[in-house]
Amino acid sequence: MLKLLAGAAPGSLGGAEVMALEAVMQQRGRPALRIQHGRVEPLDEARHQGSGIWRSFLDEHEPALLAAAASTGALQVRDRLTGRGPWVQGSAWAVGGDRVITNRHVLFPEPGLTRLGRRVPGAPTAARLLAHLELRVVFGFDDTGPSRAFEVAEILHVTEAVDPLDVAILRLAAPSGLPPPLLLARAPGAARHLYVVGHPGRLDPELVPPKVQAVFGSPDERKRISLGERLAPDPAHPADLVHDASTIGGYSGGCLLGFLTPGVAALHYWGDPTLGNRAVLAAELLKAPVAQFLGAGG
C-alpha cells in the first residue's frame, strides 16, 4: 500500500504484494481458525483476543462448519514449464456433480499474479485453461491429514470482465469421491453472525502487516474458518453482502454462510479495510446465467 501511495503503478507490485492486499478489519474478536484433527481449532484467549463471543456459536454449530470446510478446497497451480509451484491462487467449493465455483479474478487476476486461462473470441463467458499450467482443487488441505486432489479439466463458465458478478465455474476431471455439494440459499442474505471458509495465501513474512499477523500468524495456505458479522449493505453495490470476517489473498472464491440460516449465503471475492469485505449474494448468482451450474437450497 505504501508503494501505491508513493505513486507506483499497480502492475509494478509483485505477486506476494498483491496477495497481501486483502482485509483484516478488526484485530480483536475476528479469529481465523484452523481445522485440526477433524475439529475446529478451539478458541484461546492468548491467540484469539476478544473472541469469547464466538464460543457458544462454535459449540452449537461445529458440525455445520466442518461440513462447509470439507466441501471447500484450495485451487493449487503448478507451472509445468518452469517447475514453479504448486501455489494456492484461491479457493473453490463443490456445487454439484463434477463442478466447483470460484471467482473470475482467481483465473484472470490483476497484474502481479499468474493468469490461468485465455478467453475464447466471440464467446463472452468461455475460456480455456493454459496448457502449461496444472490446476488442482485440493480438499482437506488443512492440519488434519492427507488431502484429496482433483485435476481441473476445463473452465465451464466465467463472467465477462465488465460483469459485476465475479464468478467462474470449473469442471473437475474425476468427480468420483468429491465431497458433498454446498447448496446456495434462496433467501436474500445471511444472519448477522457468519463465517467464511478459505485458504490464506502464503506470504513473505516481511509483507505480513501486524494486524494480519495477529489474526493469521504466518499464512501458510492451509484452510481457515474466519468468523465475523454482516455489515450495512452498500447501496452502490446491491449484489454484495458486506462483512468483517478476516480475509487475505487466497480467500477469493470461498463460501460465506450464516450461523442461523441454511445454505451458502454468498461467494467471497474481495476485501477492503475501510469499505468492508465483499461477497456476491447467492440470490444474485441464482438470477444470473451461472445459475444453470448451481444447486439451490430452501
Q: In words, what does this structure look like?
A:
- There is one protein chain.
- Mean pLDDT is 87; it is low at 10-21.
- With 298 residues, the protein is of the alpha+beta class.
- It folds into 2 domains: 20-67 and 183-285, Trypsin-like serine proteases (Thrombin, subunit H, Beta Barrel), CATH 2.40.10.10; 73-172, Thrombin, subunit H, CATH 2.40.10.
- It has an 8-stranded antiparallel sheet with strand order 2-1-12-11-14-15-16-13. The protein has a 6-stranded antiparallel β-barrel with strand order 3-4-5-10-9-8.
- The chain is 14% helix and 32% strand.
- The protein has helices at residues 2-5, 15-20, 55-70, 104-107, 210-216, 282-285; strands at 32-36, 39-40, 72-79, 87-96, 99-102, 117-120, 123-129, 133-139, 148-158, 168-172, 193-198, 224-229, 240-243, 255-258, 264-270, 277-281.
Describe the SSE topology:
Elements: H1 2-5, H2 15-20, E1 32-36, E2 39-40, H3 55-70, E3 72-79, E4 87-96, E5 99-102, H4 104-107, E6 117-120, E7 123-129, E8 133-139, E9 148-158, E10 168-172, E11 193-198, H5 210-216, E12 224-229, E13 240-243, E14 255-258, E15 264-270, E16 277-281, H6 282-285
Antiparallel strand pairs: 1-2, 1-12, 3-4, 3-8, 4-5, 5-10, 6-7, 8-9, 9-10, 11-12, 11-14, 13-16, 14-15, 15-16
Spatial shape: globular
Given this structure, which CATH class of the largest domain is correct? Answer: Mainly Beta
Distance between the termini: 42 Å
CATH architecture of the largest domain: Beta Barrel
Give the % helix: 10-25%
CATH topology assignment of the largest domain:
Thrombin, subunit H
Multimeric state: single chain
**What structural category characterises the helix and strand content?**
alpha+beta
